[in-house]
Amino acid sequence: MEATGHGRWFERLLAELSFELWIGDPAQIKAKRVRKQKTDCLDAAMLLQLLLEDRFPRVWVPSAENRDLRQLLSAVLRRTPSFMATACS
To answer: Residue 22: helix, strand or coil by DSSP?
Structure first.
């Protein structure tokens, strides 16, 4: 699957079902595309070819627990701007 900002629900669903999901770098995938014509069928065939040839440009994706922790930390730091000012000084 190409990385998008709207696929987190799908990532979580597959994780709950114990499926492994590989997320690919869209810029690298686009660079590997020979034809500029873009259709879902051609995209699927190209992604399959990249996977079979072990050339799929996989990106690191944090676990759900890691992502939740990051969101919590971000929320805490947004509420305490003075903490950031003193911590970075």
So the answer is: coil
The backbone torsions φ and ψ at residue 50, rounded to the nearest 5 degrees and listed phi first, read -65, -40
**Residue ranges covered by each domain of the chain:** 1-58, 62-89
Q: Which pLDDT does position 2 carry in this prediction?
A: 72
The candidate with the shortest Cα–Cα distance to 56, out of 81, 82, 26, 80, is: 26
Residue with structure tokens 């759900």?
64
Q: What is the rounded CA–CA span in Å between residue 64 and residue 34? A: 35
* Contact of 85 with 33, CB cutoff 8 Å: no
pLDDT one-digit tens code per residue, 29-47: 888 887 777 788 888 898 9
Task: Give, rounded to a whole angstrom, the gap between the first and last alpha carbons of the chain.
Answer: 41
CA of residue 67 relative to chain centroid, distance: 11
Provide block-wise average pLDDT over 10 residues at a time, the chain (89 residues).
77 89 86 78 89 92 84 85 63
